[in-house]
Amino acid sequence: MDPRPGKREPAPPDPIRVYVLIRTLPGKVESVVRFLRRMPQVRAVDSVTGPYDVVVQLEVGEVKDLSNVVAGTIGGLRGVTHTTTLLAAG
Question: How confident is the model at residue 1, as a pLDDT?
Fold first, then answer.
């Protein structure tokens, strides 16, 4: 904190909210969902019907964190075949 009167520290930036649509190999949905639910960035995760198998909502502090989580962690999970990332607009 700045000791000078009238000076305030800037507010921390709002987290970046993201939705990740995930395709998995047959039989891998439950193990992917279990892993995702343990991740600290995850706010919600659901298995779904349609062209994707899992939808996950997560929050990260910076864009570089997003890359690490999606491309590194989620994309590298056993059974994950494809991800599509959507940044929330508002």
Answer: 54
